[in-house]
Design goal:
By secondary structure, this protein is an alpha/beta fold. The protein contains 19 helices and 9 strands. It has a 5-stranded parallel β-sheet, with helices on both faces. Strands 1-2-3-4 form a 4-stranded mixed β-sheet. The radius of gyration is 27 Å and the shape is globular. The structure holds adenosine-5'-diphosphate and magnesium ion.
Length: about 475
């Protein structure tokens, strides 16, 4: 049985690729898996409900065209969505859409378990006049979408945040939970959503609050016997952003009150945005009923940014402040601080302060000293990326060539030297080092290290190269 659906979908992809940006294609179309083709109905599997909505919102016209081009006017598309955030149901389930040419597509009742809007519970305590109260949103204007650099590490989180911002309370991403490690942009993104909602919907009451502050307000309310006011205040918010909800862990009373606020807002179609340093499954000390609600919407993670994204963030930051740094300095910062954006920004600020206090020019040398002295918790070891960069610069070779298959002598040598230093100066495994050099296996890396050691013992010139490079790579 030849896989007909593969062929049809392959043909569709070709046309789609020509019509949208490569970035968009990679993000939204590469993850799709064609599943079957029956009676002119092509079923494609998408990784999440979010994906499905995004495709519907943004690519429906294009999809319709290509499907009908391939399958004729009868051509239809069905989505099979893999359930996410739900440990009990792991089997894919199918959303049947009437047809691509149906006008009612947008309104078609897709029975998602995520929709919980049936029971509108009116709170008898809400005083109508209270709605007019002007709530200070606590949003930091510099944490905007414009200032948030997009990269592979944050694409899904950013896109879902963007979708929520354009339709607060009106998507299936409610709550939207953004999670990720320290300093990776959770707070920034949460603000960006709030700012964008305020811009687009000035009548909506948006509130950003740290979970610590929420908890303290609640304790004060208990003390002052104003818990009702506390609850009412939160229940009238249209868009509630709570940062670092992991802080609620182990605080039963706070979780309890938050649970009620959450339910009220959710039932009334209000948007809830949460951030956390871990995904719901790993949150200890959190009540199950709250955790299950966190999983109702979408959990999107923020990963550590790759090198290009880190450079782009630094450049954006400098541009915003009207500063210019030598390129090698920016590169060095981005290379050597690779897990935490806040730390990288901190390094940049410290460097600028150092330079202006001591009236020194900002040089690579100064940057190295500064990173070494002032950046806390930064792994001292240089990265493989940095080693490769230094080696390539030294031999005046383009960086990409290390990852190519070229067997040219000078390239092989540079590649082997990079492997040698990677082995010597980082804790990376041989396999990982190989992967960084164009997918070589561990035996190749081992061989490279031996070759370099042997050569350094017999070839004076070669040894001099190594010594130069070692100096360049050592952070004093
Ligand atoms: P978190 O809340 O995850 O600990 P923050 O949102 O406070 O992290 O981010 C730390 C710093 O890094 C902030 O100054 C933020 O502006 C910056 N930052 C993080 N990610 C990005 C990004 N993608 N683009 C621009 N700046 C970023
Ligand atoms: Mg934060």
């Amino acid at each position: 049985m030849s896989k007909k659906h593969d062929g049809v979908w392959g043909a569709c992809l070709k046309v789609i690729k020509d019509n949208i940006s490569l970035q968009a294609f990679k993000t939204w179309f590469e993850p799709i898996v064609p599943v079957k083709l029956e009676d002119s109905v092509l079923t494609i599997q998408v990784p999440s409900h979010f994906f499905y909505e995004w495709l519907e919102e943004n690519y429906i016209v294009l999809l319709k065209k290509v499907i009908q081009k391939e399958l004729g006017p009868e051509g239809r598309l069905e989505y099979s969505i893999i359930m996410e955030n739900n440990t009990t149901k792991s089997t894919p389930y199918t959303v049947k859409l009437p047809a691509l040419n149906s006008k009612s597509l947008k309104n078609s009742p897709v029975s998602m378990p995520l929709n919980v809007n049936e029971s509108q519970i009116r709170n008898p305590f809400i005083i109508p006049g209270l709605k007019k109260v002007n709530v200070d949103s606590n949003l930091n204007p510099s944490y905007s979408f414009d200032n948030f650099v997009e990269g592979d590490c944050n694409r899904l989180a950013r896109a879902s945040g963007y979708a929520v911002a354009n339709k607060p309370g009106g998507t299936a991403f409610n709550p939207l939970l953004i999670y990720g490690g320290v300093g990776l942009g959770k707070t920034h993104l949460a603000h960006a959503i709030g700012i964008s909602i305020k811009d687009q919907f000035p009548n909506k009451t948006v509130l950003y609050v740290g979970s610590e502050k929420f908890a303290h307000q609640f304790i004060d309310a208990i003390k002052n016997q104003t818990t009702n006011d506390f609850i009412h205040f939160y229940q009238m918010i249209d868009v509630l952003i709570i940062d670092d909800v992991q802080f609620f862990s182990g605080k039963e009373k706070t979780q309890d009150v938050f649970f009620h606020v959450f339910n009220h807002l959710h039932q009334n179609g209000k948007q809830i945005i949460l951030t956390s340093d871990k995904p719901p499954v790993e949150m200890q000390g959190m009540e199950q009923r709250l955790l299950s609600r966190f999983k109702w919407g979408l959990s999107a993670d923020l990963g550590a940014p790759d090198l290009e994204t880190r450079m782009a963030i630094l450049e954006k930051k400098m541009y915003g402040n009207g500063i210019e740094l030598p390129k090698d300095v920016t590169e060095y910062l981005a290379y050597s601080i690779n897990t935490n954006v806040r730390e990288m920004e901190g390094a940049l600020n410290t460097l600028l302060a150092q330079a202006s206090l001591n009236k020194k020019a900002i040089t690579l040398e100064l940057a190295k000293q500064m990173v070494d002295k002032f950046v806390k918790n930064t792994a001292r070891e240089v990265s493989i990326e940095y080693i490769q960069k230094v080696v390539c610069d030294y031999f005046d070779l383009p960086l990409e060539i290390l990852k190519s298959k070229t067997r040219k002598r000078e390239v092989v040598q540079a590649r082997q030297i990079s492997m040698y230093f990677s082995k010597k100066m980082t804790k990376s495994s041989l396999a990982n080092i190989g992967a960084h050099c164009g997918g070589k296996d561990h035996a190749t890396v081992l061989h490279a290290c031996r070759t370099v050691t042997n050569l350094s013992e017999t070839d004076k010139q070669f040894r001099a190269y190594l010594e130069d490079l070692e100096k360049k790579l050592t952070i004093q």
